[in-house]
Every structure is written in structure tokens, then in C-alpha cells.
Amino acid sequence: MSEVNVERQNNMNQAAVSSDELLSRLMDGELDELGLARLFKMMDQNPSLREKWLRFNSTRMHIQGVHLSSPSPSLSFANGVRDSLQGQKQRRSLRRVMAPLKPFAVAATVACMGVLVGQQLTQRTTQPLALAGSPVPTVRSMPVIPFLEQGSVSVVPASFGQSAVVSAPSEVPVESLYQELARQRLEAYSGVHAVRGALHTPVTLMTGSLARADSRSEQP
Amino acid sequence: MSTGSALDDDSDRLLVERTQRGDLRAFDLLVLKYQSRVMHVVMRFVRDVDEAEDVAQEAFIKAYSAINNFRGDSAFYTWLFRIATNAAKNHLVARGRRTPVLDVDIDDALMHDENQRLVEDESPEAALETQELEAVIKRAVQDLPDELQTALCLREFDGLSYEDIAVIMNCPIGTVRSRIFRGRETVDQKVAALLSGEPV
Hints:
Largest sheet of chain B: none
Distance between the termini of chain A: 122 Å
Structural class of chain B: mainly alpha
Number of helices of chain B: 8
Radius of gyration of chain A: 44 Å
Order of helices and strands of chain A: HHHHHEEHHH
Number of helices of chain A: 8
Shape of chain A: rod-shaped
Shape of chain B: globular
Distance between the termini of chain B: 28 Å
Number of strands of chain B: 0
Oligomer: heterodimer
Strand content of chain B: under 5%
Number of strands of chain A: 2
Radius of gyration of chain B: 19 Å
Strand order of the largest sheet of chain A: 1-2
């Protein structure tokens, strides 16, 4: 065997003896912090030291005359406890990392809920009310319903002096701004005429009472 | 000799302190050391071995969670024993079984006969294994060279410190340390051979 190998073997033997002796000293409470740290380092590299510790303690109990009516001690029992505690430790670390993010998560959830509720509300659009006796609207007299932000609700003046709560239409791109404006006016115009059409009776047609009422309201 | 002796106190103190600083490896050594005793205590309440093992493991997990509450007023094993007993009782209550009328004392948990040897309450096979192991250990200790045997026995039987043994044997503490280690190592080789099925 070459000198290098002899040296290496000696070092390994030295390390092996040292770890066993550290275990023996730990058995007797004769180990300090530094020694314990060194022992743990060795145990990380040499798991068989755990089994040796188990045997040392078992031997001590037999020497002292302690006999137990329990299964022989095994590594599997301690492994189960160790794995369980390591799992708990990992979960606790994860909770500690996630804890500062919790308020943000709550705020984000609330914001999402608000957006969803708002979307639901915008889908329920209400038509402006038209009443008998109101003048026929013209395009010029139609108010321009301003573009409102999605999900917002506001009170806007309806065409015939009435107030109505309307839901704002969905936000549209700039390119179709005029299209949207025309659509709104057409809707209102159609709605009014539909109502007026329903209001027309043979009596109102014959007497022209409806037309007179309209013209009176148009006068300044 | 009861459990929780001065020998255990010395080695437990360092491991408990280390555990309290969050080192799982230190607690692992405590589990390895005391698992038999905790199992024995739990099995006084829970007869089924698998069930007892679960309860015993749970007791250790509870002990780890509460380790910072251990002040050192009592021996670590005494504190652990109480946790194990409570865990076993709680298990019985949870299962709808009645707990024993008489509580289990820490010394009675390990049944002693008049010769201070524990009465075995185990299966014949386990009893045979224990007897065989005991015989091997006894023979191994007797076969040790005198100085190793003396040092080891003064330590294991009488619980003397290294300093006291050094005074008795009229040698340096380092020599005492070395002799005890070599004695343990020699006995352990015989025990390891028996447990692995090799000829002793």
C-alpha cells in the first residue's frame, strides 16, 4: 500500500474512531458544544452513527438491568418522528414566507370581487323612461350619455326631464366612439317612439290631444 | 436502578439545550435514546403495538413542540414520561375507551421485582431475544481487560464522573475517557454482531 493510501487510511480511521469516541463522551455528558457540533457533522456524513447511538443506549439499559416489554428499538420509529417534525418545520417556513403576502392576497381578492360584481351590474342596463305627454325627441335634443368607466353606475338626466338610473355601457375603443353615440341615440329614439306608438289610441289620434300636448311643451 | 439517572441527566442537558435552539438532530438522538422507554409506558395503556407506536411517536412530537417549556426543574425523562402518559390517556379517551383507574407512576411503569430487576411482560420470543442480548452483554463486559471493565462499570453501574473515576483508578481523566470508550466499543462490537446475525 502506498504512503498516500496509508495516510488516507489513517485519516479515515482517525475520523472513524473520533466519531465513536464523541458518541461515547456524549453518553456520559462529557461533550461540549463544539464536540456536539462536530459529532452532528459526522453523523450527517455517516448515518450509521445513529444506529450506534441506539445500541450504546440499549446496552446501557441492559447493563443497568432495565428490561422493557416493548419492541426492540429501531431506527424506523425515530425516522418517523424525524420525518414528521421536518415536514412540520417546512410547512411553518412556508407559512412564514407567505404571511406578509396575505394582506395583498386579501386586497386582490376583494378587488376581483368588485370587478366581477361591477361586470354583473353593467350587464343589467335599464332603458330611460318615456312618459306620455313628453315632446318627441330629436337627435339634437338628445343628451350625449358620457362614457363612463366600466362597472360604474350614475344618475343621468333622461330625455324628458326625468331622471333615471342607468348603467353605463361597456367601454368602447376610440375608433367606435361615434358608432356608440349613434347607437345610444337610436336606442333612445326608438324607445320613445315605441312608447308613443303604444300610447296612440283612436281617441288621441282623432282629437289630436297628444300632438297639442307635445307642441305646448316644446314652446320656450 | 430507575430511569432518569444522573448518567442520563448529563447527556440529556446538552441535547435538550440544542433542541431548544431548533436543532432537530439533537432531538433525534433523544428519540433514539428514549423510544423504548416511552413505548413501554404507552403500552401500559395501549396494548396494540402499532397503535402504541403511533401514540409514542405523537408523544415525541408533542414533546418537541413544547420543548421550550422544559425548564430543567426535573429530569428530561420525567417530563417526557408525563407527556407520554397524557398522550396515551388522551388516545384512550378519543377511542372511547376507559383509562386505567390507577395512574401509572414513573417508577411503577417499569415493573420491578424485589431484586431490582424488571419483570418482563412480553412475548416468549421477545423474552428470549432479550435474554440472549443480556447474556452477550454480560459476557462481553466480563471478558474486558480489567482496567476497561473497572472504568466502564464504575461509570455505568455507579454513575461516577470521569473525575471521580480518575481519582479511584489513579490515572488522568483522558485515560479514563479512553478506557470507557474502548470498553463500550468492545461490547458494542459483540452486540452489533448478535443483532446482525453474525456469530458472537
